[in-house]
Write a structure and sequence with these properties.
This protein has one domain: Arc Repressor Mutant, subunit A (Orthogonal Bundle), CATH 1.10.10. Helix content is about 70%, strand content about 5%. The protein contains eight helices and three strands; from the N terminus they run H-H-H-E-H-H-E-E-H-H-H. A hairpin with a 7-residue loop joins strand 2 and strand 3. Helix 2 crosses helix 3, helix 3 packs across helix 4 and helix 4 crosses helix 5. The two termini are about 35 Å apart. The mean pLDDT is about 90.
């Protein structure tokens, strides 16, 4: 008895995906991304900063574990060039929302952390965020949302690999 190769097995599994469903998925996710971007801009405006600056602050808040997070890691998280993070972090530092500190172990690395002012302003948005989350996810359980986030994270990795494959001409 012969067993299917990995490629044959993958091809059989992949052929079950309806191209129309895949396109609808892509369109829906793109639409959700547009609305998330609009919401980010509204939240940023409340803090007197731009949407991308707000995304930078949120990435630092999510990634930072007490001793700051490198510019490179923040850039990777928000899918931008590190030079953009460097420029924007300097502006946010001037506004008193971010601290920039040279890494003691490697002077080439700049670590970012939120200032107390940033934490206070973000905390001021918490009630609005809770209300928004309640509205958006009213029919979704925490477990369902956690599963969805996990599935989307897995897909994010797959799409990143697919993008690299396309970029290399495959």
């Amino acid at each position: 008895m012969q067993t299917k190769s990995k490629v044959e097995h993958r091809a059989a599994r992949d052929s079950t995906i309806d191209p129309d469903v895949a396109r609808r998925f892509a369109t829906t996710v793109a639409s959700v991304a547009v609305y998330l971007d609009e919401i980010r801009h509204f939240r940023a405006k409340a803090m007197g900063i731009s949407g991308p600056q707000f995304a930078l602050l949120m990435a630092v808040m999510d990634l930072e574990q007490g001793d700051g997070v490198s510019v490179r890691h923040v850039a990777k998280a928000v899918l931008v060039d590190p030079s953009f993070i460097t420029t924007q972090s300097k502006l946010l530092e001037k506004k008193g929302l971010l601290r920039r500190q040279v890494d003691a172990a490697d002077a080439r690395v700049v670590k970012l952390s939120l200032s107390d002012k940033a934490y206070k302003q973000i905390a001021g948005l918490a009630a609005e965020e809770r209300a928004l989350n309640s509205f958006v996810f009213e029919d979704t359980s925490s477990d369902s949302l956690e599963r969805l986030v996990s599935q989307l994270a897995d897909l994010q990795v797959r799409f990143e690999k697919a993008s690299l494959k396309l970029a290399s001409g495959l």
